[in-house]
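In keeping with the milestone schedule agreed at the kick-off meeting, the structural modelling team has produced records for the first pair of proteins. Each record is given below as a sequence line and a structure-token line. The laboratory manager (R.T.) confirmed that both were archived under the project's standard naming scheme.
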Amino acid sequence: MMSCVGGNGDDRPALNPTKLHRFPPDTRKRIEHLIQIQKDHDELKAQFYKDRGALEAKYEKLYQPLYDKRYNIMNGIGVTTDSESPTTNQGEKGIPEFWLYALNAMYVLDKEIKDYDQGALKHLVNIKWLRTDNLKVFKLEFYFRPNPFFKNSVLTVTYHMIDEDEFIIEKIIGTEIEWTSENRLKKHRTGNRRSFFDLFSPPEAHNDCKNLKLKDILQGNYLIGSIIRDDIIPRAVLWFTGEAELEQFEEMSSVHESFLKRLSLDVQKRVDRLRKIQKDHDGLKAQFYRERAELEASYQKAYNDMYNERYRIVNGVVEAEKLAKDSEVGNQSPEEKGVPEFWRHALVNHELLETEISIPDGEALKYITDIRWFRKDDSKGFILQFYFDKNPFFTNTVLTKTYQLLDEDETILHKALGTEIEWYAGNCLTRECESFFNFFNPVRINEKAREELVEVMRRDYYIGSTIRNEIIPRAVLWYLGEAVQGDKEFGIKESEESDEDVDEESEGEESEDEVSEEEVSEEEESDEGKESEGEESEDEVSEDEGSEDE
């Protein structure tokens, strides 16, 4: 099988002659030039990853002393408040059930933590994350005091990603939990009931690239891991006190509020000390965000130059062969300008987006001339812009989708705003039917039905991030189908691939992929419910929101 990036062994694109032969000579030359632009882009991107990794490592060292102080206060190690005696009983020290309530306050995690999980999570004393020497890998570590549920003192889950943008999962490796024979949690989990501790038992990543069910399970695991890494660990005290929860919702849960009111005066003082540490941490984090934004901006300018050149070639603004030398066909006119239906093919060739695009949608997508993304001014989110040529479907020349996130780490979606599409009479594609253009409807958190909207929001954000992180930077490879020919998303090494496998792959794609019942049986019933909930919870875009995004 061919690699996802062409099979030249260095993660840079290579031409597949059999695919280029089907194009007319002039179009073939334009595509060859797009491939060269892609190579230059990927080399620049690799350098950016190195620079960003060095910046992250610099600040992680600055955060660590603050995390150490927090750990000591939470667990009552060598620290006291003014009113406490150094001889205070050890059992009275620290902050009880700190991590349990910090995790429960985040609504995505709250629905993963079942009642039968909470007893074990009360013994959680610390959570850490670390980046390995490979920038494509990060690990979460959960530290537990001795408890009646399992023998492990540390549970880990390690995420291996395809690239440093951390969007496509290669594999996830968890700890095998050594449950004690008498623990209650294991008994409660009989019958395929879900548990927070499923985080440490992810399904194996098989080489079935079309298996969206398996991918959804892995993405759900990664979503939980990234939220814990980017939101829970750095802002743990704010989740424990409910302050972070109140940034999203008008009120915290009654159980959480009742727990906080029962804290003793000494514990409240310890929490105040954690707040002071949090302020120091947030000051460093703000400085990191500024430096990272400056680094991204410096590289984005170079990317945009390449995207502008790509736009000119794709849309026939300039003939690619004239950029290097005179055309070998002399004064003959090219068969047709640019690269026909470039963006339509790029989108449809992605297995996730393909499921969103109907046949009528495909006709409208032929008129896309470019897709770009921009960072929001406050750095808390991004904007997608789809540029269209004049077409028979709608009057808009630009359709936008704006994702507003709660922080610069881009893990918690606050709301998503779209464009009001001005359809021509009789040509509306979204009226009472599924359509890719429903993507431009808004998605926002409904405080009274927040759990029901989690999956809708997650899928919408997943689609937007896919377009930003995969389609836009590697559009020519998706157009050619080079980005979907192999199973690199599931960790298939190029040494295991051969050209003889190409025919076998095409035959295999005709059959429907399956996941073992053990991996997905507990997901089947909930997925059907989520789909119906998502259909019932669509919001309409107001004129004010639409104009704001324009």
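The second protein of the pair:
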Amino acid sequence: MVDSRALLQTHLWGREMSSGLPLPEPLAPLEDLYHCVLSANCPSLTPAHSASLLRSCLYAQGAGVSASASELQCVSLTVLEQLLCRLTARRGVPDFHLFAEETWSLLQADVMGALLQQLNSEDLLVSHLSVTCASAAVIYQLHNTGSVNAEWSQWCIQTLCCAPGPPVDSCVRSLTEVLRRLLKGAHYELCKKVLVEFDSSLPASCPRWLSADTDGGYDGRGSSVSLVVDLLEVLCACRSVCAHGANLSSPCLLGVCSRELLVLCSCSKPAVRRRVLLLLKRALVQRAGEDWLGGHQGQPCRDVSLLVHSVLQAAAEGELKGVPLEGVPFFGGTLTVSSGPSVDNVSLRALCLVLLKSMELQCQPNGSVFHAEPVPLALCLQGLRDILPMDSPAPPSGQPCHCCSRVILVFGEQDDDMMEATKALLCIFLHHRQQEPAQSSSLLLWACPLGLNPHCHFLLLLRSLAFDHRVLLDFLISTETCFLEYFVRYLRFLRTDPGGFGAACASVCLEQLLPGREGGNLRCRGAGGAGDAGLAAAGAGQGCGVVLVDYSSSGESDAEEMERTGDLEGAHHRDSYLETAVRCLSLLRELIFRLHRKKLFPYNPRSLIKLITEAEASLKSIQYETPHIEVGSM
């Protein structure tokens, strides 16, 4: 978003530097008023004089205007917006508040009409500044009277019924700006009033705008789709924190527009496709608008059934296979031309995670989440296989890559998405096993061909981290991923099925599984390795990355820690992956216990320690009884 204060300062300095003369009237008094507003001090002008000056500059725009008139308009809009922001925030001395209130009271009768007219100005800078100024006026009235500005609301509702074009773009920008500012300020009660005001008009308008853009409207003036995507995200964020008690009659707007958004993914430009997919991903993982919520955790949105059903239906019908994932969005600068087709990894991860989270939500037993007829899981998994990249080149052994690695390869460089994906895969697996109890005895035979074996996923995760228990600890204390939730669920399953983990260790050739976590490229690291020992050394060297916390102060001496790490690396070379995994869990349990004993752990880990202990004991009981099972390829 453009900083109006920076624009004004650059403009004023540019005028002075270019001419070397004092600023002409009325720029000189406007500059004085601007600096007084920024410092929240009373200017030399009276409220009546200030209001008259701002009004005359706001109405300077007309037919055949000169450049100076447009400049006056931009400066006056910036001054008025800053005055309203400081009036809303109650900044400055009491005398300044009295001056600002009197100035605005002389302007508010007719200035909103002028601002709404200038929203459609052909001058994009004037239009942008009018949006920010009108939004500041609406927010001040909400704070001051608790009601939405009637003139602004009526204009927005009328404009929402129009065909896509500049007026609709201005309306969407203004509404988005108001809601975004209210969210940033944590004024959720005021957000509710705005949501209620437009509850009946938005559901009928947004699908129509997106449908028009899929027919080629995006290539017209501005980035209409991007503006609507911004509005959908801010509305989704508002519902997560404001829906309770707001008495909203319409469903989640993201679900209402889901079919149009999925169509956009198949026919839009790469930049628009990426924005749409990221919006769908953030909505399904409950992170929509996280940049505006300031760390506030909203209630999980339960009204996502329309979105989930649309995604799964599109996957079952093969529509997601048609989403183009080649071509990286270009935003200027130096463009590196690759020799082959480039894959937009961000869009690929988002599309895969959207489908996985949709399947996870369908599998949840809570009936309030999903109301439609469930889509068969087999069709959804086939849709997932359609959009995944082709298998990596076969390793020197000549055997095909393991099926469970295909999903993990996609998320290898993005920890938060990887944890969401593995948690979703675990939920899907447990649901499928519950629906097909007869297959529980042959876990690898049916789960691996589908890419659903949670033991393989956990083993892949450990191997990509070089079996470093300290990195697992980083994940456990971090709030940026859902690893703790996933880890607890998996440990509960692992303690009941240690044989499945042992069989996975015996049957999976990890030199074919290992996802590359460097350079941003999807590749099979085993394709370049000469053997298990060489691969282990490479993984131990770079898989850990930077450890977030220095745990040397936990009471263990450096010599002891080096001895443990050396033993672990030796076991990594000599012993089976099962023994290495058991030792990793054991070291993790000991480290958590020491930190908790010294009150250095951020939460009570007693239940977690108990789960790790039980899973560790279960794995030790079958450590020397691991069967070898051949796993079919996908």
